[in-house]
Amino acid sequence: ILDDPDLKDIDPTVLKHCHAAAATCILEAGKQKADISAISACLEDCKLDKERIDQFCTEYQKNKDALEILLGSIGRSPLHITDVSWRLEYQIKNNQLHKTYQPSYLVTLNVESSDSGSHPDVSFSCTMEQLQDLVGKLKDAAKSLERATQM
């Protein structure tokens, strides 16, 4: 999209926001199985002109079946964390060869889904403060779940 000559005068940030908004609109319409009248009403509320709404609805209608198939293939249940592993990484120098001496943690979450598809493990790097924050939030979530199950 950014290479399109018709769009060269538009700020790339604005263009990315518009693309994200359009993608969100399309995905939500597909997820809700919205009909053309509902989509038109929503776009009218967003102050789009009639010609653009008609063009959008025409393209959406052409691709609706493919969109529903794609959304159906994503899966319905969230991933479950089955195990976690971590290791301490100690960065001695940065890209500019300055000494940094910054410890960080490399965390890997082993995940599985009730759907048949396989999922790669989720890995991320964080500082000790970020890891402590994550652990605190997980403890809060566990306490909330425990309280909810006692009711």
UniProtKB/TrEMBL annotation:
Top-level taxon? Eukaryota
Q: Which InterPro entries does this chain map to?
A: COMM, COMMD3
Q: Where is the COMM domain?
A: 80-149
PROSITE patterns, A to Z: COMM
- What Gene Ontology terms for biological process does this UniProt record contain? sodium ion transport
What the record says about family reads: Belongs to the COMM domain-containing protein 3 family.
PANTHER family, per the entry: COMM DOMAIN-CONTAINING PROTEIN 3
Annotated protein name in UniProt? COMM domain-containing protein 3
Q: Which organism is it from?
A: Leiothrix lutea (Red-billed leiothrix)
